[in-house]
Amino acid sequence: FRRTHPRIPLVRGDGNALPVATASTDFLTYAQSWHWTDTTRSVPEALRVLRPGGALALWWNTAAVDVPWIADATLRIHRFLGVDPGTPIEKSASGAPAALADTAGRLDFTRRQIRWSRTVPLDTHLANIASHSGFLVLGDEATSAFLTEERAHLRALFPTETIEETYDVDLLVAVRP
Q1: What phi and psi, each to the nearest 5 degrees, are found at residue 73?
Q2: Quick one: pLDDT band at residue 124, thresholds 50, 70, 90?
Q3: CA geometry: angle at 11 spanning 9 and 12, to 5°?
Q4: Among candidates 66, 64, 60, 74, which has minimal Cα distance to 154?
Q5: Which fold, 25-175?
C-alpha cells in the first residue's frame, strides 16, 4: 500500500482503542472483524470518534444456507468445530447485535441483507474456509484433516473443481445523531 500510495498516511489501530481524535470520523467500519473486539471497549470508542451524523458500518458474510450444498457444508463445519448450528446471533429488539443495544438514543440502526455470489476454484474456496477464526485457532494439523475430507465432498459435487459460493451479507449501519 505504501509503495502504491506513498502520500496516504497509514495509522495502525485497534478497535478497542482507536488512534483518532474525538468526533473526527465520518465513517468507521468493521468488515468481518467486529467479533475480534471487546465490545465493552469498542462501542464507547466508536461513539467517541464518530462525528454527529457519522456512521458505523458492521458486516458479515454469512453462508446462504438455503442453497443445499452450502447448508450441508455449513453443517459439516459446525459439527467439526463443535458449534451448535441452531444457535442464533444474539440481537436486541432494534435488530442490532446485543452488544450495541445500550447505545439507544446515541446511534440509529439500519439493517440490510444483501445476497451475492462468486465463482472460485476449489482451492480458493478451501483457503477461505481455512481463514475463518474457528480454524485458525485449531492449528494446521486439525485444519488440514478437515480440509482433506471437505475437498473429497466437494470434488464429488463439483468435478470441474469450480464452485459458486453464495453469501448473504448481514449489514448493520448505525448513524450517530
Answers
A1: -65, -40
A2: very high
A3: 150
A4: 74
A5: Rossmann fold (3.40.50)
CB 45 within 8 A of CB 20: no
Mean pLDDT of the chain: 86
Q: Map out the domains of the chain as residue ranges.
A: 25-175
pLDDT in tens, 68-101: 999 999 999 999 988 876 654 444 444 455 556 5
- How far is Cα 135 from Cα 144, in angstroms, rounded to an integer? 9
User: How far is the C-alpha of 40 from the C-alpha of 175, rounded, in Å?
Assistant: 19
Which parts of 88-161 fold into alpha helices (H)? 122-130, 133-136, 140-157
Interatomic CA distance for residues 45 and 162, integer angstroms? 42
The torsion defined by the Cα of 145, 150, 153 and 158, in degrees rounded to 10, comes to -140
